[in-house]
Amino acid sequence: MVRIDVGYRIDVRENGGDKLMPEKRQCVFCEGKSLSKEHIFAQWLLKELEIYDKNVSMTHASVIGVPISNRNHAFSKLINGLVCEKCNNGWMSQLEGDCKKHIINLGVSIK
């Protein structure tokens, strides 16, 4: 069996048939099972950068990298389901809070 980092596994059978099967996801930091729907970009940061309502174009690809389709998504709707509630609401929230003023200052100096 080959593990693929998108939460699926390929089950290679003796008769030569491959089947893509869902695998139970877990937190990428602590392997916890109670996953949250974490925004990839902090909502306050998107507003600060004035891109909250902007779209990003992404290519959906097969497991081996063959493009399947192109999709547009709002930055504010991008979420990741691979972080548990404990990490998301604990150390990650603390880290974001501690760094927020520094991130804003970096943005101001770039503008």
Q: What is the mean predicted local confidence, pLDDT?
A: 81
Total domain units: 1
Taking the alpha carbons of the first and last residues, their distance comes to 49 Å
Low-confidence stretches: 1-13
Radius of gyration: 18 Å
Shape: flat
The tally of helices reads 3
Q: Reading side by side through the largest sheet, how are the strands ordered? A: 1-2-3
Order of helices and strands: EEEEHEEEHH
Determine the fraction of residues in helical runs and give it as a percent range: 25-40%
Beta-strand content: 35-45%
What's the number of extended β-strand segments?
7
Which structural category fits the helices and strands? alpha+beta
Please outline what is shown here.
By secondary structure, this protein is an alpha+beta fold.
How would you describe what is shown here?
By secondary structure, the chain is of the alpha+beta class. It has one domain (about 25-110). Helix content is about 30%, strand content about 35%. The chain has three helices and seven strands, in the order E-E-E-E-H-E-E-E-H-H. It has helices at about 45-50, 85-90, 90-110; strands spanning about 1-5, 10, 20, 35-40, 55-60, 65-75, 80-85. The strands form three sheets. A three-stranded antiparallel sheet has the order 1-2-3, with no helix packed on it. It has a two-stranded antiparallel ribbon with strand order 4-7. A hairpin with a 5-residue loop joins strand 5 (about 55-60) and strand 6. The longest helix is centred in the last third of the chain and has 20 residues, at about 90-110. The radius of gyration is 18 Å and the shape is flat.
